[in-house]
Amino acid sequence: MSLLSSVACADAILSSDNDSKCVLRVGPDLIHVTAYQAQDPRAEFCRDIPNIGPVIIVLDYVDAELRNMMADIRVIKDVGGGADMSGAPNILSDAEVAPEALDSVTERHLPAKLYPTGIISFQHNFTSAGTYHGIVTVKNEHGQIYVSQFPFSVGQAHRGAILFYGLIAASIVAGAFGYWIYSRRYGAVPSSKKA
After folding, report:
1. Model-level pTM?
2. What is the SS3 assignment for 163?
């Protein structure tokens, strides 16, 4: 009986295709997660949504078993979970994804219900840049509950590019400065003469 009421926390993003569609593992099943923005409705996003404003988030069940499960969806603002080396928000702990801990930081909540078409689509207006978590909780007919999350950022996509190009520029400047110091200290390198 204790196995039937167990709660399992799933891995976050399992994989992504060109950073547009993410595959989320929820228990033994998979869901595609994709986001769209009005500024460019043909562009698809996964982990990095470039601009604040209205965003359409679509969860598309890969496995048909999910259609018979109650699904509860939340979007929460990251409240200090930190980020990994790539800048993506860290995965929240079990205590941080407990419903009572989420209520105060929830920006959007879709209460538990069945989605027999296998598609969950909703719009949310992100008014501030930052890191967020989508949290999917499903419950099957045996009472098993699976919780999974997909961290993403909004309005911060250009920060990575700025950092990358800043590091390149700093490397070029440092190299030029090093060469200038070397040439001042040791003088110009004499060119070899042909005999």
Report:
1. 0.66
2. helix
CA 72/CA 83 separation, integer angstroms:
25
Decide: 78 and 89 in contact? Cβ < 8 Å.
yes
**How far is Cα 195 from Cα 184, in angstroms, rounded to an integer?**
29
Rounded Cα gap, residues 59 and 39, in angstroms: 20
Other residues' Cβ atoms within 10 Å of the Cβ of residue 137: 21
Reported residue count of the chain is 195
- Note whether 12 and 24 are within 8 A (CB): yes
For the domain covering 7-155, report its CATH number. 2.60.40.2550
- Residue pLDDT, tens place only, 76-103: 988 665 555 445 555 666 666 666 777 7
Give 152's strand partners.
132
* Domain definitions of the chain by residue range: 7-155, 157-187
Amino acid, res. 192:
S
Residue with tokens 């499960």: 69
Q: State what percent of residues in the chain have pLDDT above 70.
A: 68
Determine the Cα–Cα distance for residues 144 and 146; give it in Å rounded to an integer: 7
